[in-house]
UniProtKB/TrEMBL annotation:
It is a multi-pass membrane protein. Belongs to the ammonia transporter channel (TC 1.A.11.2) family. One of its GO terms (cellular component) is plasma membrane. This is Ammonium transporter. It comes from the Eukaryota. The chain crosses the membrane at residues 32-53, 60-82, 122-142, 149-171, 183-204, 216-236, 242-267, 279-297, 303-324, 336-358, 394-417. It is found in: Cell membrane.
């Protein structure tokens, strides 16, 4: 008997189609997608809010956390008003979709193009990706960017940079049919890493004392934020197939295997070179593993995920701990949390390794109707070297396009904003930190946070006037 004969069987009442759940709606996929989208959202709020607020100097805790919270809210409004359709809507050029609202039930209750669930699932899931990208970028700018400039930067970068990468690679752009970017190694991590570094150049460095001495104010909270980020990646990579099928669990397992391997390698290098295991270093190793596996999580084997973790834990460690300290460019540009290394370098590494190690069987399961190629390793093994070389060509072209677009567009955005407000805070505000910017501080060390009112000066007449 064929599966098409299911209509001859009486379905349980909870599974039977009705007006609120039409026959194309897979309730299991729908439920998983809503869960995955929420997990991705939790990576930003509270994940990066806690991570940023704890990983910086005490006087910047409030400002850093609030930059993340503001970006999450601002991106959502922009996303449903115009940015979603610019990323996934009607094509108006090889790199851009037509701006439009994503608010009407006529659109949100339609079936998604990929999977069997309402379009509202897709809109919210992709919003969570977009918000995370902007917040990751902000990690390069902590401790000195004018908050008013940040308020303008978020919608502008989302509109003119993020949507371009998303449409080009995931929408209907010129790279969509060839490049392998399973869950955002290019669209999210390479773009945020390059854009963050570029913006850091235009904003300028932190106060000299802050740049030389910038200890985290709460390492335990930092680990809590990192935990949200790590476990939230289950939804990040597990939700990208838009189905609770075979690829999702493979992607989830690969994600955590790669991340654990990368963390262990990073900590090992710290212990060998510096004779101490750095907690901050462990978090950096964790992040590089998450980033590196993202472009290939659902299309590489688990042994390949371990290899990718070894690569991200070692090569990115060398990039951040050796090259960064020796190269004049990295010394002149103040990238506060090293986002260029943890996201741009690790994203490039993941994109190249995905093109090298993608298993054609998994690629076919993930993209059944596409023209995606196969990893160079498997193409050589199967005697189809041309296919593998073609795939590597697409991977490298994607790196070049995303890098160039973000350097140019982020520079234009920063120059444009600087015509209206200063990109960098005043020197006096840089000395004070949160109290100068928001009138609030992160921790009340005494008096339950009560402020002592400054006594008013008594305007006494001068002595020489009294003697007249």
């Amino acid at each position: 008997m064929n599966f098409s004969d299911y209509e001859y069987f009486a379905l349980p009442l909870a599974l039977a189609p009705d007006e609120a759940s039409p026959d194309w709606n897979n309730k299991a996929d729908n439920g998983w997608q809503l869960t995955a989208a929420t997990m991705v959202g939790l990576q930003s709020v509270p994940g990066l809010v806690i991570l940023y607020g704890s990983m910086v100097k005490k006087k910047w805790a409030v400002n850093s956390a609030f930059m993340a919270l503001y970006a999450f809210a601002a991106v959502l409004i922009c996303w449903v008003l115009w940015a979603h359709h610019m990323s996934f809507g009607t094509r108006i050029s090889p790199i851009m979709g037509k701006p439009n609202f994503a608010l009407s039930p006529n659109y949100l209750l339609l079936k998604t193009k990929i999977g069997f669930m309402p379009m509202a699932d897709f809109v919210f899931f992709q919003f969570a990706f977009a918000a995370l990208s902007v917040i990751l970028l902000g990690g390069s700018l902590l401790g000195r960017m004018n908050f008013y400039a940040w308020m303008l930067f978020v919608p502008l970068w989302l509109t003119f940079s993020y949507t371009i990468g998303a449409f080009t690679i995931w929408g209907d752009g010129f790279l969509e049919k060839g490049i392998i970017d399973y869950a955002g190694g290019y669209v999210i991590h390479l773009s945020s890493g390059v854009a963050g570094f570029t913006a850091a150049y235009w904003v300028g460095p932190r106060h000299s004392h802050d740049r030389q001495h910038f200890p985290p104010n709460n390492i335990i909270h930092m680990l809590g934020g990192a935990g949200f980020l790590w476990l939230g990646w289950t939804g990040f990579n597990g939700g990208s197939p838009f189905a609770a099928g075979l690829i999702a669990p493979i992607a989830i397992l690969n994600t955590h295997v790669c991340t654990a391997t990368s963390l262990m390698i990073w900590v090992s290098f710290d212990m060998i070179v510096y004779k101490k295991s750095s907690v901050i270093g462990a978090v950096q190793g964790m992040i590089t593993g998450l980033v590196c596996i993202t472009p290939g999580a659902g299309v590489v084997d688990s042994w390949a995920a371990i290899l990718m973790g070894m690569s991200s834990g070692s090569l990115t460690w060398y990039s951040m701990m050796v090259v960064h300290r020796r190269a004049a460019l990295f010394q002149s540009v103040d990238d506060t949390l090293g986002v260029f290394h943890t996201h741009a370098v690790a994203g490039v590494l993941g994109g190249i390794l995905s093109g090298l190690l993608a298993n054609p069987r998994l690629v076919k399961l993930m993209y059944p109707a596409s023209t995606y190629g196969t990893g160079l390793f498997y193409s050589f093994k199967d005697g189809k070297l041309d296919d593998g070389l073609k795939q590597m060509g697409y991977q490298l072209l994607g790196i070049a396009f995303v890098t160039a677009w973000n350097v140019v567009m982020t520079s234009f955005i920063c120059i444009f904003i600087s015509r209206f407000v200063n990109l960098r805070m005043d020197e006096e505000d840089l000395l004070k930190g949160d109290d100068a910017v928001h009138g609030e501080e992160a921790y009340a060390l005494w008096g339950d946070g009560e402020r002592i009112l400054k006594p008013k000066r008594l305007h006494r007449p001068r002595i020489h006037k009294l003697l007249r």
